[in-house]
């Protein structure tokens, strides 16, 4: 593997939305941004302020560390936000707050059993550091008028839709954030899909897992970096604006064009110009639902076109056939249960192999190098980009860029926290970034729900 390159760094004060779109969004280039979204207050997201600021009292799904890292979506437990924060304050480094999903495969964490690691588990299409949009659960068609919002059921539907955007425990930010914070000006050309909170604590005694008798040397997602935890190498189906709050994050990046050399769990079918990667639906991704270049589910697009377009009979039959084929997948998933495989968007390369230079023991490093050469030889064709981001900085990462995220605490406070925004990526390289108005209409409905909830909260 070649030595790491660098990416560009820009000041938030030196770029506007148009120049950022031209140089980074349309060129599908990641960059580090010095400065923050206007009005974003880091202090409000600090550990000691978070509970009062978010005012969130429902249960959260919190992931347990597994095999030295996070991102598999397994080992989740139910915790109230206040209880989770207390565990972090008291030194618990086994838990990590990620994107929230439906309450399946979740254990009770009312006692201190949350630090227990268990074996492989749930099948998640994407559940990892900046890899967490649940493709199955993006908005169903939903329209709400202000008059209808007087009905409690419609209000609940509006709240559910907003909660898809402002992921738990950020949901109540609709009361506090302006639209300028929900849809930052720098990326105003793109449609927001989710805003998430990531939170955990570094283990200063963490170590590299190693067992020569186990597959892949038993490395799991452990790292040779002291105090670090890993997300695993993976890619996402949305553009991302990532904002560290505390601690620091090391991103090891590869462009989408490197995916064929990175031993993905799934078999790649298409890499779109946007960077979005679609997979073959087979034994390696049995419940995969196909996506188009802007990250939208092919099934949802077909339903939307059937409802909104004036179609002839042949067009209707074609779209109905698409819906039927994709719906079968969900039915099979419901009857077959979960898979023990990682999502197709994950690499099978243990993240420790990306950081061999940090392995101190020569014999261990030699065996890891042998594993790399024999099991993952194509990795040497790739040149990683390594980036460190810390509070006061942001990272823009286009869809499809593969990344392994190593999380570190700093100083005496070992808690690492971040907020990230997901955006539907552009599917055409022009000032009109979407080929149709699917995403813009979708966000119009979300905006309507935001206004309704805001008005009802006053």
TrEMBL record:
SUPFAM superfamilies: Clavaminate synthase-like. Transmembrane segments: none annotated. Residues 106-126 are annotated as: Disordered. InterPro entries: Cupin_8 (IPR041667), JmjC_dom (IPR003347). It comes from the Eukaryota. Residues 192-438 form the JmjC domain. This is JmjC domain-containing protein.
């Amino acid at each position: 593997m070649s030595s790491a390159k660098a990416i560009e760094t820009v000041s938030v004060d030196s770029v506007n939305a148009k120049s950022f779109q031209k140089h980074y969004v349309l060129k599908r280039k990641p960059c580090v941004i010095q400065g923050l979204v206007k009005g974003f207050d880091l202090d409000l997201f600090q550990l000691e302020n978070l509970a009062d600021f978010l005012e969130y009292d429902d249960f959260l799904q919190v992931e347990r560390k597994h095999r030295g890292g996070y991102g598999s979506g397994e080992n989740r437990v139910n915790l109230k936000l206040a209880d989770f924060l207390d565990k972090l304050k008291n030194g618990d480094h086994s838990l990590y707050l990620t994107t929230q999903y439906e309450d399946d495969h979740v254990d009770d964490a009312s006692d201190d059993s949350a630090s227990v690691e268990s074996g492989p588990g749930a099948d998640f299409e994407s559940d990892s550091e900046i890899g967490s949009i649940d493709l199955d659960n993006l908005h169903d068609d939903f329209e709400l008028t202000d008059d209808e919002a007087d009905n409690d059921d419609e209000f609940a539907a509006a709240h559910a839709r907003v909660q898809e955007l402002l992921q738990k425990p950020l949901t109540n930010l609709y009361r506090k954030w302006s639209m300028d914070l929900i849809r930052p000006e720098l990326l105003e050309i793109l449609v927001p899909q989710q805003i998430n909170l990531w939170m955990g604590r570094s283990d200063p005694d963490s170590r590299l897992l190693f067992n020569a008798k186990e597959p892949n040397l038993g490395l799991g997602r452990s790292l040779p970096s002291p105090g670090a935890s890993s997300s695993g190498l993976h890619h996402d189906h949305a553009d991302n604006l990532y904002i560290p709050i505390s601690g620091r994050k090391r991103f090891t990046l590869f462009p989408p064009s490197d995916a064929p050399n990175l031993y993905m769990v799934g078999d790649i079918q298409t890499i779109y110009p946007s960077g979005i990667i679609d997979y073959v639906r087979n034994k390696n991704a049995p419940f995969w639902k196909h996506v188009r270049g802007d990250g939208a589910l092919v099934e949802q697009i077909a339903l939307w076109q059937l409802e909104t377009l004036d179609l002839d009979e042949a067009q209707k039959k074609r779209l109905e056939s698409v819906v039927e084929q994709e719906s079968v997948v969900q039915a099979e998933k419901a009857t077959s249960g979960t898979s023990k495989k990682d999502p197709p968007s994950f690499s099978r390369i243990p993240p420790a192999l990306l950081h061999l230079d940090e392995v101190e023991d020569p014999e261990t490093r030699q065996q890891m190098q042998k594993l790399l050469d024999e099991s993952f030889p194509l990795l040497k064709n790739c040149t990683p980009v390594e980036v460190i981001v810390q509070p006061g900085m942001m990272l823009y990462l286009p869809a499809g860029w593969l990344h392994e995220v190593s999380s570190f605490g700093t100083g005496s406070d070992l808690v690492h926290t971040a907020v990230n925004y997901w955006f539907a990526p552009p599917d055409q390289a022009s000032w009109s970034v979407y080929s149709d108005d699917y995403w813009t209409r979708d966000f119009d409905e979300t905006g309507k729900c935001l206004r309704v909830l805001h008005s009802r909260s006053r």
